[in-house]
Amino acid sequence: MKGAWPIVLLGLTVPVLAAEPATTQDGLTWLKKMASASRRLSYSGTFVYHHAGRNETSRIVHFVNPAGGEFEKLETLDGPAREVIRTNDQVTCYLPDTKTVIIEKRSGRRFPAHLPEQLSGVADNYVVSVAGMDRVAGYDCQVIMLEPKDKLRYGHQFCAEAGSGMPLRALTLSEKTQPLESFVFTELKIGGSFSRDQVRSRYAAKSRDWKVDHSALAITDVPADTGWVLKQQPVGFKKLMELKRSIAGRAAVVSHIVYSDGLAAVSVFIEPLPKPRPPRSLSHQGAVNIYVRPVADHMVTVLGEAPAATVMQIANSLELKGSPRH
Question: By CB distance 3.0 to 4.6 Å, which of 103, 138, 257, 292 could disulfide with 268?
Fold first, then answer.
């Protein structure tokens, strides 16, 4: 939760054209139903997240209070212990191994389906279709396919519970159609009786003497013209937001720009070049590619759930307005 720039998934509201094929319209309807279900439903279950050749098992309880309020408890069941408690937009992460508590605001990503609330542009960049029924964790579910129209973005497959639209399985496919990461519920209860006790932390009382990190709450974002532009913007990607970010303990302001194709988002961060000068580097975490490139007196970090070529194209095309082109 700390040490990496947040990935922001946002969308713009654009009406769906009536002329779209029925299968595309059906697929988009299911995607919107999935995005809504993961927010409005109360549920509890166990899921497995697979990436980088390994599995991580976690338990989640999500409670929506009819009187108002959204509460969530997420805890790992294998590997280092970690518990995440969310109350509306405030997130508290307990790390018992290091006796640390991290308090921050929720980013744009939502569990379990990494879907923006609006899906503008999706049909322009993906072939969206429904592909029959399947069964996951004892529930019948509708399969929805998103096939990219080019190599600039990943493919996706979802399975949404037939009645509620609750996402039960998600698979991300590389530009070579190889599995990159996935999550799947192995056990799930949708609805039923819930109480606040189910989403309370088991570590809250014993963590009173732990180190508390509030640094993420001290970040101030201000919409602004950063002065940076793309000379070769990837097809289908549009700028969603541009701002300057002040972070406690850092003298310089960080510029942040987000580009999206309606589903995938790529974040760009520009900050003063540190010493020693970092080399160009490409790394990845699951489906997220991260590319670092020095540009003049700045360090550019670009990351997102997109192929490495897309992330690198954005980084290598970034320049200050008015700078000479090579």
Answer: 257
Radius of gyration from C-alpha coordinates of the chain: 20
In 3D space, the residue among 285, 277, 282 whose CA is nearest the CA of residue 310 turns out to be 282
For each of the chain's 326 residues, which pLDDT tens digit applies? 444 444 433 333 333 333 445 678 899 999 999 988 988 899 999 999 998 889 999 999 999 988 888 999 999 999 999 999 999 989 999 999 999 999 988 765 555 556 776 777 899 999 999 999 999 999 999 999 999 999 999 999 999 999 999 999 999 999 889 999 999 999 999 998 888 899 999 999 999 999 999 888 777 889 999 999 999 999 999 999 999 988 766 778 999 999 999 999 999 999 999 888 889 999 998 899 999 999 989 999 999 999 999 999 999 999 988 765 54
Q: How much is the pTM?
A: 0.85
Contacts of 14 (CB under 8 A, 6+ apart): 118, 120, 121
